[in-house]
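Bumping with the actual sequence this time:
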Amino acid sequence: MEIFFQGAERHAVEIFFKDNQLSPKKYIYLNIGASGADRRWPKERFLELARKILESTEHSIILGGGPGEKETIAEILSTLGPERSTDSLNLRLKQDCYLIAQARLLVTCDTGPMHIGFATCIPTVAIFGPYDHKSTGPYGLEENKCFQILPAENKTLQEITVEEVWQTVHSALEI
């Protein structure tokens, strides 16, 4: 799968970069949204992961999600502060896809943006829940582009720890 971008998407993201003092490959995109609670990692864990990233790396954070995550994203941003964190909620879908394509790394649950990350060849840390990840993909990706985190047998996505995800993020950033 591939996604093709037009000049309009690129231009909108260039403005977004300028407005937020960001540059391509200098941020990690955290997609906190998912279609259902069983596919959504807890917001407290995303917040803790974002803090670890900000404390341990030079990367900024962009939080993404759908309209249903607007309040959660606002809560996380108010805790993190505006210096190295922002959100992509005001971008259109294709603009947000291009923003993901410019990230150094995408961290997401098994949801649409995960597939966008794979389609744009961005290293992606994918947090899966207690369902068969083989039925949703990814398929045939380079090892250094897909970092899957699966719960232990008969466990839920909510039991995946921040430390597990952080270790995978850290490994992905070293590649």
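The tokens above came from a reply further down the thread. The mean pLDDT is 88.
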